[in-house]
Amino acid sequence: MAFIDELNKAVVLRIVYAGPPMSGKTETLRALARLLLGARYNDAMFTPGEAGGRTLFFDWLEYSAGLFQGRKIRCQIVSVPGQAALFARRKALLESADAIVFVVDAHAGRRGQIGRYFRELRQVISRPESEPPLGVVVQANKTDIAGALSNEDLRQAFDDSPQVAMVRTVATDGIGVREAFVQAVGLALARVRELLELNLLQAGDPDISSGEDLLQRLLALEEQQFGQIAAAAPEPAPVAASANEQLAPQRLSAILEAEQQRVRDEPPQPLHGDATGIISDMPRVPDPGVGAGTVWPAVGGRIILHEIAQHRPVMRQLADSAWTAEISDSWRLLSPPEHRFVSEALARDEILRLARLHAGCKGLLSEHRCITFADSGHGDWRIWQVVRRDKTAADLLALALELPAPESVAMELLRIGRVVCGAVEAFREARFPGIVTLDMLALSGGRPVYAGFLPAVMYRNGAAPQPYAGDAAAVLKTELHEAIGMLSRRGEAMPRLLRQLEASQRGDDVDRLVAQTLIEMSLHHGES
Ligand SMILES: Nc1nc2c(ncn2[C@@H]2O[C@H](COP(=O)(O)OP(=O)(O)OP(=O)(O)O)[C@@H](O)[C@H]2O)c(=O)[nH]1
Ligand SMILES: [Mg+2]
Fold first, then answer.
1. Residue 54 beta carbon below 6 angstroms from any ligand 1 atom
2. What share of the chain is helix, strand, coil (3-state, %, to 5)?
3. Nearest alpha-carbon partner for 237 in 119, 317, 348, 145
4. Lowest mean pLDDT across 41-45, 67-71, 140-144
5. What is the pTM for the complete model shown?
6. Ligand 1 centroid to 62 CA: how many Å?
7. CA–CA separation, 218 vs 161, rounded Å?
8. How many A from CA of 514 to the centre of ligand 1?
9. Terminus of the chain with fewer CB atoms < 10 Å: N or C?
10. CB-based burial label for 397 (10 Å; 0-12, 13-18, 19+)
């Protein structure tokens, strides 16, 4: 989010303080205000709303010092709210960071929680490989308290991550906080330098030059997100419903009041302990007992979960470490690797996006499906797509090939051809990236629909969905190749089949295209 402010000859950086609740993020910003701004520190920090000493939105502090390539360095220093329930807000702030200071309570007994929050952080700030990664400084805080863990002990919470720079601090006394901050600014500038070299420095957001601006932006974003879901979803988006009621109010005071109430009502957060997340372990599949707001669509989805709970799933892990489950020949479940999350909050956030994607494909996807997420039983969370195995065009073809009269076979082939043509046209028009194959096409109210899981390009980060680019004749040639081969081996049937197809060429454009393609294929097979 860094940007060059040409008008004021400055480079603007955002250093974001993250970390578990009550670790000392706000206290650190207070200390920085005193240390960096001296006499001017009074009123320098902007904190829009807090409840019982807990940050609800963020703390904001500005600091300007030093030069970068002849421009002043201006730092926006922001702390995030640590509470689990405020994840969406925390995520929006983390995404705008140029470097992170991850503040942890070095107190023994906190390692599990630190690990969990660190994994959440890494998932949120991961960048495409083409971009330089975001630097993280770990601030081991509260080291004044007896029994604080050593750096070596703390490092275990950051298990598989590359070396993290660690600075020991006592925020209440201002010890070490300047050092951690300076390190973070160094990392942010190194990243800006790399982005400039790669020509990737975004225009940034010069509209945010104060804490008030950031608050307005955050509120607008939240309203927009919830508004979009409400507009897109065929059913009220279940996972957003309760939050919507609390976040929709127009006036800031009303929002703050609702937030304060929410925080008062919130039960203490359970500690999950260290989640190792061993992916080869078989995950639990969702059952109808999943909590409110975890299934989309809310009503239809829960009915599906009830239905699948009656049967035992057959689980399988695919080469890419996705898990699938088959249930009583009627339902299929999929949880690809990108739908495995280290925290419930991350899964909850992603399921909102998936619900929107599904809602946007209304009319193109088969009807009997839902998405849900569940605790895998191994310290992580998985989103599952659940799709009913509907009768597909491939099933129609299998039946057609059993028909005795070649004329009937021809009529069925034409019908399947029309289904394919209809799907290619509908997918192209809607820019839907589903690949047309017979076993992915079902009929719903006479219209072709996609009976597979949501195409991966739609939810995979960084991959822009490509609209379907195939053409109907090519699909028919691939998908019916084997069937025509079988028919041509029934030698005596071929002339009757061809006669029927030729008669069908006199129909509309679609009939003509299908009949001509089939004739061409039949003749080709006849020759070979
Ligand atoms: N002993 C000691 N207490 C600290 C230190 N840093 C913070 N605290 C105390 O820890 C409590 C939580 O600090 P905050 O700065 O509010 O924590 P936070 O990370 O902003 O919490 P959230 O906003 O809820 O995420 C406060 O009572 C602080 O005074 C420290 O270095 N030593
Ligand atoms: Mg705070």
1. yes
2. 45, 20, 35
3. 348
4. 41-45
5. 0.55
6. 20
7. 30
8. 71
9. C
10. buried
Q: Per DSSP, what are the bridge partners of residue 73?
A: 11
252-265 and 211-232 helices, crossing angle to 10°: 80
Average pLDDT over residues 431-438: 88
- The enclosing H or E element of 64 equals strand 59-68
Distance 93 CA to ligand 1 centre (A): 20
State the distance from the centre of ligand 2 to the C-alpha of 77, rounded, in angstroms: 13
Q: Compute the average pLDDT of residues 480-493.
A: 86
Pocket test for ligand 1, best of 17, 22, 25, 78 (most atoms within 8 A of CB): 22
In ligand 1, the atom with minimum distance to the C-alpha of 55 is 23
Beta strands in 358-484 (DSSP E): 369-375, 381-388, 441-444, 447-450
* pLDDT 10s digits, 149-200: 988 888 888 865 656 778 999 999 999 999 999 989 988 998 898 888 888 8
> Measured from the CB, is residue 144 less than 6 Å from ligand 1?
yes
Give the pLDDT score at 344.
84
Distance 228 CA to ligand 2 centre (A): 29
Which residue's CA is the nearest one to ligand 1's atom 21?
22
DSSP type of residue 106: -
Separation between Cα atoms, residue 250 and residue 219, nearest integer Å:
9
For 237-264, letters b (16+ CB in 10 Å) and e give: bbbbbebbeebeeeeeeebbeebbebbe
The pLDDT of residue 460 is: 76
388 neighbors 308 (Cβ within 8 angstroms): no
